[in-house]
């Protein structure tokens, strides 16, 4: 864990040269995933990929660098499943059929998504079509697809919850969209709960990952931080569902 922290800090120093500050967190990359220069080129690579082209429902994290992708997905008629505020206000669905077209851009923002989208519980997500593609930003990632996010494990928790209720499976592809300076050559090994990306998109490269690890453990409750459980309602909902034998 200390090695991961050292890597993050090194990457964050480089990222500061190309990242756009957040209106709330400035350059505190431990609190948000930054947008960055030439992000448009990385987004174009992603939307041209077959994973995006074939997807009807896409989970897209609420990262600053993915706002344009959320907008593009709505324009392309895709449903966008996402979370907001560290999952603390749960999962939300942006359905282009339910949002006026001239409000797509607003809906793709963190301020607009809760006004234009609708909150969905895990029980409701179980009844929805399966998610076809998972996309996240991250603090750093190596060429084997192992992410170093902000260190909170939100994407792995989101994967674990959706996997546990059957909304995704081991064949569901996941991608990371990052700046080139965030891609590392260092060799690391994923933890049992780490979701390794199938493909990495940068402004200059598309990196396909061979045999990426996909966790099948759901939520490892004994390893879950108590504060995450206490502050994230979907985790509490999943715990109740498991206790009642509903998943």
Question: Which secondary structure elements does this structure contain, and how are they paired or packed?
Answer:
Blueprint: H1 2-15, H2 39-48, H3 50-54, E1 57-60, H4 67-75, E2 79-83, E3 91-94, H5 104-107, H6 110-116, E4 118-120, H7 122-127, E5 133-136, E6 140-142, E7 147-148, H8 154-164, E8 174-177, E9 183-184, E10 199-201, E11 206-208, H9 226-231, H10 233-243
Parallel strand pairs: 1-2, 1-5, 5-8, 6-9, 8-10
Antiparallel strand pairs: 2-3, 3-4, 6-7, 10-11
Q: What sequence of helices (H) and strands (E) makes up the elements?
A: HHHEHEEHHEHEEEHEEEEHH
Poorly predicted regions:
none
Global geometry: globular
Spatial extent as radius of gyration: 17 Å
The CATH architecture term is 3-Layer(aba) Sandwich
Mean pLDDT: 92
Structure description:
This protein is α/β, with parallel strands linked by helices. It has a single domain (2-21, 32-242), classed as NagB/RpiA/CoA transferase-like (Rossmann fold, 3-Layer(aba) Sandwich). 34% of the residues lie in helices and 15% in strands. The protein has helices at residues 2-15, 39-48, 50-54, 67-75, 104-107, 110-116, 122-127, 154-164, 226-231, 233-243; strands at 57-60, 79-83, 91-94, 118-120, 133-136, 140-142, 147-148, 174-177, 183-184, 199-201, 206-208. An eight-stranded mixed β-sheet has the order 4-3-2-1-5-8-10-11, with helices on both faces. The chain has a three-stranded mixed β-sheet with strand order 7-6-9, covered by helices on one side. The longest helix has 14 residues, at 2-15. The radius of gyration is 17 Å and the shape is globular.
